[in-house]
Amino acid sequence: ESAVSTEAIAWLAFFSGLGKLLEERLAPKVIEIDGEGPRVAEAEDRAEEGMGPRNRRVIAAIQEAAFTGKGDKPVVVQLYREYARKVTTALAYSGEEPEGEYEGEY
To answer: 31 — phi, psi (to 5°)?
Structure first.
C-alpha cells in the first residue's frame, strides 16, 4: 500500500518544479499514523539511484508478500505496473521536463 501511496511523491524528485508547486498549493494526501503521532508521509529520498531500483524493490516486496488467493500475486504486480505507468504518463503531460533519466519497467 505504501508503495502505491508514495509513487507520485517519489516521482516528484525528478519534477522539482511541479513538486514545489503542488507542495505550495495542496494539502498533504498521505499521512503516516504509526509511531508517536500523525505525520506527513514521505517517500525515501533515493532520487540519485533512479526509479528503476524503486520499481524493482516494490515488485520484489509484492513477490515476497503472502496472498490468500493463488492468482493474486501476479495480478497485484500487474496492477502496480499499470498504476506506475499512469503516474509517469500524468507527470509527462505536466509539461515539465524530468530531471535525470528513466531506468525501469513500463
So the answer is: -120, 130
